[in-house]
Design a protein that fits this description.
Blueprint (H helix, E strand, L loop, with lengths): L14 H24 L6 H8 L3 H4 L6 H22 L6 H17 L12 H7 L2 H23 L9 H10 L4 H9 L4 H13 L6
């Protein structure tokens, strides 16, 4: 007889629990879109409720405040970023991994799925600083990117004179780069062309070769 311990299958969630989760997911998706379009300060709880098609009172059964709403959306994006990093082939050159992250970030932004980062004095920033899930995800992403930045500087593919933290923040800035929207509004370039142009300016600079 096998000595392996048989594990019970996970308990199936009730229909009510499934509906609750589905509504919560819809709320977070709506918040994500509104944060991407308008930013935290301009977004209102009424707009979120209207977009999901529920009463404001029903929304508060899931999230207690505007800050909680936005923090949940930011956590979702952070987890998505961690999953993307997990999908990368780490045998690739560090510079290519960094480029893949920058490209992915801009693709998500152009798809309208990247919430605007909170300002220094934003109430959302304060809520995120005490959100364990968000901070854990941020540290995971920062640690991995930081290691790739240092490796790319060591092999000469990134400027060694730049502090790694400056490079890291430059990459994070691609998540809210207004240049993408400006170029798209011009109507003269496709999204892939826009990303290629910003990638060139970010990694190769603006100097003529």
């Amino acid at each position: 007889m096998s000595s392996a311990v048989l594990k019970s299958p996970p308990a199936k969630r009730s229909f009510r629990e499934q509906m609750h989760q589905a509504r919560e997911d819809a709320i977070i998706q709506a918040v994500n879109r509104l944060l991407a379009e308008k930013g935290f300060d301009a977004m209102t709880v009424d707009e979120v409720a209207a977009e999901v098609g529920i009463a404001k009172a029903s929304l508060y059964k899931h999230f207690s405040s505007k800050e909680d709403l936005a923090a949940a959306a930011m956590v979702k994006v952070m987890l998505r970023a961690v999953a993307f990093l997990d999908s990368l082939d780490t045998s690739e050159r560090p510079i290519d991994l960094l480029k893949a992250v920058a490209r992915w970030t801009m693709e998500v932004q152009l798809a309208g799925e990247m919430p605007s980062l909170p300002s220094e004095n934003s109430a959302l920033r304060g809520a995120l600083m005490v959100n364990t899930a968000y901070m854990d995800g941020l540290m995971q992403v920062s640690d991995r990117l930081g290691a790739w930045i240092e490796a790319a500087q060591a092999d000469g593919s990134l400027n060694r004179n730049l502090p790694p933290i400056a490079v890291l923040y430059t990459l994070y800035a691609r998540a809210c780069d207004p240049v993408l929207g400006f170029l798209r509004a011009s109507g003269t370039h496709s999204d892939s062309e826009i990303i290629d142009m910003v990638m060139t300016s970010c990694f190769e600079g603006l100097n003529a070769r």
